[in-house]
Amino acid sequence: MAKTKETLRSARWFAPDDLRSFGHRSRMMQMGYDPEDWTGRPVIAIINTWSDAQPCHAHFKHRVDDVKRGVLQAGGFPLELPALSLSESFVKPTTMLYRNMLAMETEELLRSHPVDAAVLMGGCDKTTPGLVLGAISAGLPSIYLPAGPMLRGNYKGEYLGSGSDAWKYWDERRAGNISDKEWVGIEGGIARSYGHCMTMGTASTMTAIAEALGLTLPGASSIPAADVNHIRMSTQTGRRAVEMVWEDLVPSEILTPAAVRNAAVVAMTMGCSTNAVIHLVAMARRAGVDFTLDQLDALGRTTPVLANVRPSGDKYLMEDFYYAGGIRALMASLGDKLDLTAKTVAGVTLGEGIDGAEVINDDVIRPITNPVYHEGALAVLRGNLAPNGCVIKPSACAEHLLVHEGRAIVFDSYPEMKKAVDDPDLDVTENDILCLRNAGPQGGPGMPEWGMLPIPTKLVKKGIRDMLRLSDARMSGTSYGACILHVAPESHIGGPLAFLKTGDIIRVDVPNRSIDMLVDEDELARRRAAWVVPKPYYGRGYGHAFAKHVKQADEGCDFDFLETGFGEPVPEPDI
Ligand code: FES
Ligand code: MG
């Protein structure tokens, strides 16, 4: 229902002539505001994930002023509320342990404060799903402001891509092909402006998903952080947040089954990060939309990769993608693969938002007739090793490994694996399958990005750059290679990966979507009976609660009690 000045949620705090409201008003005045600032004006929460330990959001410290300018122009009252900044680069053991914490923080910040709508400022991997999950559950009008990708990396005139080139040159260094001096030069050139990773990693994937879901202004997710267009877009986002209050445009009107499907299609055409699977499933489930791995896989079979951005692409980065027309041009070229009638926060449909968009460079944004990869970026495999599914990114792995039978080499922990791969006597060939367990949501804990297991040094020296790897971990969206990830259920809770032994033969068939260990049922039953349940990692604290409530990868790793339909809705605060 459209709002009036009298029915603003914030007016419940500020308008009544009673003792509580006296307190709210006098404390606003303590900050130098007066009734002109808030009376009859939508109060816009700006959830800002800036911090001194978040390089991807460094500009948010000042960019928030541009958002505030927009809010004020449109007659609103901005209130900046800082939230967990979740830097992928620094947070240990993994930001994934804390995505749900940011989601809870966002939901409760919005619920508990005198605000009418939210601008969500995020971009680094987990911040997008964290903020969006929280906003869905809070239910206030919410608009997403993506941080924007950083500029292309540069070393001696060569492009450098976040993550992807770190892995690539690390292998070359291990092979003895790169000097210390060159290595230091790469270190100084790979991240040379604020903004999130500029490969098609999890950040670029998730901001594109936010846009395709209808949660940003048209084109917002492609603008590089350091481009002044990003400043203008930020101000427009602030203005639009105020209008959304009057229209009472809440997330449930945006996050429909059609929007989720659009987001999955766009993610696939972008050559998305494997992490997209977990976050998109989580966001859909929060919104009460039924969306499964099988639906994603089915879409993948008919959706080609069109964005020629590394690591699925061979050369370009997000800055090039923006100059080539950005996500609006990509979506415009998808024709009837998208539901263009889906509503967006902009107050127009997805179709209206991309109207007139053109591809400027068709080597960066390929036409459907000349894709980067003929099928979707992701495939979901099932079998006796992953009854609830696992994920592979066929577009980023060597073709000859897509159908493969090989000997398992199994590691119980990351440190064990790390030590072994450097051992010159490790019994391994390029036809084997490196397997890591105890790396899932509970086992990691937090499902770290360990899934791109390093190729053993002795094989790297032989020139091998890809082989099959398998785990219940995730991998960075900037990673590449034949990595089978998110095995569910995970080994730590007794998924079949717990019973795999070195020497077992694993058969992988990506075109037929299967993954099996060739071990007979009786033998598996014996191993299951002998299995010792691992000790939990945390005896107290957040990690303890995490382990009790986190769902498995195929269900999005949300907390059970945060999911829509878990129980009674949370009441609005009694003012
Ligand atoms: Fe922030 Fe990659 S480290 S997006
Ligand atoms: Mg990442």
Automatic annotation (TrEMBL):
EC number annotated for this UniProt entry: 4.2.1.9
Domain Dihydroxy-acid/6-phosphogluconate dehydratase C-terminal: 363-557
UniProt entry tagged with the keyword Plastid: no
GO molecular function: dihydroxy-acid dehydratase activity; iron-sulfur cluster binding; metal ion binding
Entries under InterPro entries matching the protein: Dihydro-acid_dehy_C, DiOHA_6PGluconate_deHydtase_CS, ILV_EDD_C, ILV_EDD_N, IlvD/EDD_N, Sugar_Degrad_Dehydratases
Family under the similarity heading: Belongs to the IlvD/Edd family.
Protein name: Dihydroxy-acid dehydratase
Native source organism of the sequence: Hwanghaeella grinnelliae
Organism placement in taxonomy: Bacteria, Pseudomonadati, Pseudomonadota, Alphaproteobacteria, Rhodospirillales
